[in-house]
Amino acid sequence: MSLWTCGIAGCEERFEAVESAIIHQTVEHERHQCTVCGSVVPDGYFAIRHAFEEHSRAEYVRAYDADSSAVRTREDVKRAVEEEADLRAVVTELEERGAL
Ligand SMILES: [Zn+2]
Ligand SMILES: [Zn+2]
């Protein structure tokens, strides 16, 4: 079974369940302020989702001075998480903890 690595700012915590990784990212790490619009969102998966669902790729590249491989890496992470995660359960758990 492959493990999910947190990956925020070099964090190497690993999780068997992707849901646990997202909860860790949301609860244990500082929130991320979006460079494009200034919204404050949980770092990790939710920050990636925000960037690519709320903004265009071009806006992302400009705001973060990113190249296309950085964009692709994040799009791959987003896709992999969404294929595997029960995001409804994640959101419910985070709401119960008062973290969202
Ligand atoms: Zn972490
Ligand atoms: Zn934004």
Automatic annotation (TrEMBL):
Q: Which InterPro entries match?
A: DUF7565
Top-rank taxon: Archaea
Q: Which Pfam families does its entry note?
A: DUF7565
What protein am I looking at? C2H2-type domain-containing protein
